[in-house]
Every structure is written in C-alpha cells, then in structure tokens.
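=== RUN LOG ===
request id: a7f3
mode: sequence -> structure
chains: 1
length: 148
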Amino acid sequence: MKKSIPYLLSLFIGTFFGYILFQDSDLNIKQVFANVLTVKAFQIGVFNSKEGALELKNKYEGSIVLEDEDVYRVYYSMLTNDQVIERMEKYLTNENISYYIKIITINDNSLIKAIEEYEEKMISGSDNVLISINKLIMETYEGGLDDN
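=== RESULT ===
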C-alpha cells in the first residue's frame, strides 16, 4: 500500500493542475476526438450575400452552401480519391463550369461516411453515374444553408 500512495498522489495532483490550467481554455474535447476527413472541394462560387450563393446552389443541383466567416462558399463536390478528382475536373471543364479546388477539413459524419462508401463507384461509371453519385454524396451533408 505504501508503494501505491505516491502514484495515487501524483495522479491526483496532476489531474488537479490539469483542471486548473485548462479551465479557461476553449478546448473542445469532442472536436479533438471527432471524425474528420480532409477533402478536395470543388468551389464554384464565393458570395458576400446569402441570396447570391443560394441562387448559384439552385442552378447546380447537389451543390451546397457553407458560411465561412463573412462569405458564403458554394461547393459542387468534395472528394478524396485522385482518380475521381481527375474525372470531376474533366467533367466540369467539359461543361464549362468554373471551379477552384480548395482543400478543406470536414467533420460531418454522414458526409464522411457517404464519401468513403460511394467514391470508389465513381471511378469506372459514365459521367451520368459520376454526377448522380456526387449529388447523392453532397445531399448527405447535414450542415450548410437552405433556401429557408
């Protein structure tokens, strides 16, 4: 028992000081252990007004709008597989859709699951399959802005 007292005491003291040090920090423990994925996002527009972003979103079915500080960004696709990214680039170029590839980190579990589950199926299908699956993936995102 005497050998375990120093260990227990150091554990208690360490916990106490850790609590005091991190009490005022803005550390969110849920974010530390959150499921995150780094993706290449195909941004098709950036707007200062919500209305402009929603107008572009409605023009391109399946796209989403994310508020980023003081601007609204419209994303057409979010992908991780290099082959699929290349196919999406070719498709958007052929359709004369201007885009900017931006690397972002997402933490929406349903979107991450959809990307991991469906992205491989986009490699070998036709352009219609590519766009249909992309739309399916993007519609799983639970954040973003709606017309409401």
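=== NOTES ===
The beta strands are 37-47, 64-68, 71-79, 100-106.
The radius of gyration is 22 Å.
=== END ===
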